[in-house]
Amino acid sequence: MNFIRKPEWAMPEREATPEAVFFDRRNFLMGAAGAVAVGALGGIASAGIAGAAEAPKDKTLDLYPAKRNPDFKLDRPLTEEQVAATYNNFYEFGGTKGIYWLSKRLQLRPWEVKVSGLVNKPKTYDIDSLIRSMPLQERLLRFRCVEAWAMAVPWTGFLIRDLIKAVEPKSSAKYIVFKTFYKPKVALGQLRVWYSWPYTEALTIEEGMNEMAMLATGVYGKPLPQQHGAPLRLILPWKYGFKNGKSIVSIEFTEKRPKTFWERAAPSEYGFWANINPAFDHPRWSQKSERMLGTNKRRPTQLFNGYGKWVAGMYPDLKDRKYFF
Ligand code: MTE
């Protein structure tokens, strides 16, 4: 399944293959058919898949906006909400940036997150109970995609370390593996069989315990919308965007490092660590600068996206390319 060497999101327009164009068109048509069906059966606004009965309500609305953590200040204006919400990477719904309307097919409740593997207290959480049991905070953070676009966003969420403490990892646990849902009838991009679904990302336990490592539940003072990875997604602002897995249903503690989604799809271009560093270019483009969504203003890329104070100590050799790929 590893024959895709260039994910479309990492490709300049001029390099996009006819295959990508064909499948995006097919996704569009299938998505359009789905949208018509949803419309006929009760309204796109219900955010459910066609035919679904009235979906249970989000029981966390009263938690937003959460208290802002003043330690995280931005050096640039916030990206406009509408801009961030209409330029997304969410391959489950297609390979273009404009998938927000297709992502509305994903029903967000009921939603369970299974925490399993090498822990003393494995547990399957109902998403509302999980969110209510964690201290939420808002942080204004820079976000940098490996493709060199960037944004500045107010994320709401909790520290992964609070969840780690709750489930008590065993001493043999070394990695935390995060998986997205697998629902190819809803997320038509998952019909592309050459990708290894579900989307999988992972961290070391040390990274998960870091002050910067968050699980986001909201953005712009409200619960996450589907396209940003509702109801639960990773926010690791010192790493390239692809590490920030969306719509998580499984968190597993393992001894062995797993192969992550883009590592499988394009192993020569996307590694496990993926820490941001302007000194190490992507094999096909420079990482020296980034383009802000909305304004298109270019800014120099910062080592660890400017969060080195918190995270640099986890990577012993800052000259070793393996940490930045
Ligand atoms: N998570 C899943 N499940 N599927 C994806 O395709 N794309 C990743 C990441 N998380 C992706 C994902 C990439 S490449 C980026 S840059 C960010 O999501 C984009 O997050 P945003 O759309 O909220 O800006």
Task: Name the helix and strand elements from N-terminus to C-terminus, one letter apiece.
Answer: HHHEEHEEHEEHEEEEHEEH
What would the average pLDDT be, to the nearest integer?
89
**How many strands, what sense, and barrel or not for the largest sheet?**
7 strands, mixed
**What count of helical segments does DSSP give?**
8
Q: At the first level of CATH, what is the class?
A: Alpha Beta
> Which ligands, by name, code or SMILES, are bound?
ligand MTE
Distance between the termini: 21 Å
Here the CATH topology equals Sulfite Oxidase, Chain A, domain 2
Tell me, briefly, the overall form.
globular
* pLDDT < 50 stretches: 1-5, 12-48
Structural class: alpha+beta
Under the CATH scheme, the architecture is Alpha-Beta Complex
Amount of helix = 10-25%
Please write out the topology.
Layout: H1 18-40, H2 81-84, H3 100-103, E1 112-117, E2 123-126, H4 127-133, E3 137-144, E4 149-159, H5 160-167, E5 175-180, E6 200-204, H6 205-208, E7 214-219, E8 222-223, E9 233-235, E10 248-254, H7 261-265, E11 289-292, E12 298-300, H8 308-311
Parallel strand pairs: 1-10, 4-11
Antiparallel strand pairs: 1-2, 3-4, 4-7, 5-6, 5-10, 7-8, 7-9, 11-12
The structure holds ligand MTE.
Description of the structure:
- The strands form two sheets. Strands 3, 4, 7, 8, 9, 11 and 12 form a seven-stranded mixed beta sheet that branches. A five-stranded mixed beta sheet has the order 2-1-10-5-6.
- The chain has helices at 18-40, 81-84, 100-103, 127-133, 160-167, 205-208, 261-265, 308-311; strands at residues 112-117, 123-126, 137-144, 149-159, 175-180, 200-204, 214-219, 222-223, 233-235, 248-254, 289-292, 298-300.
- Mean pLDDT is 89; it is low at 1-5 and 12-48.
- The chain has one domain: Oxidoreductase, molybdopterin-binding domain (Sulfite Oxidase, Chain A, domain 2, Alpha-Beta Complex).
- By secondary structure, the protein is of the alpha+beta class.
- Ligand MTE binds at residues 9, 88-92, 145, 180, 199, 228-229, 241-242, 244-247.
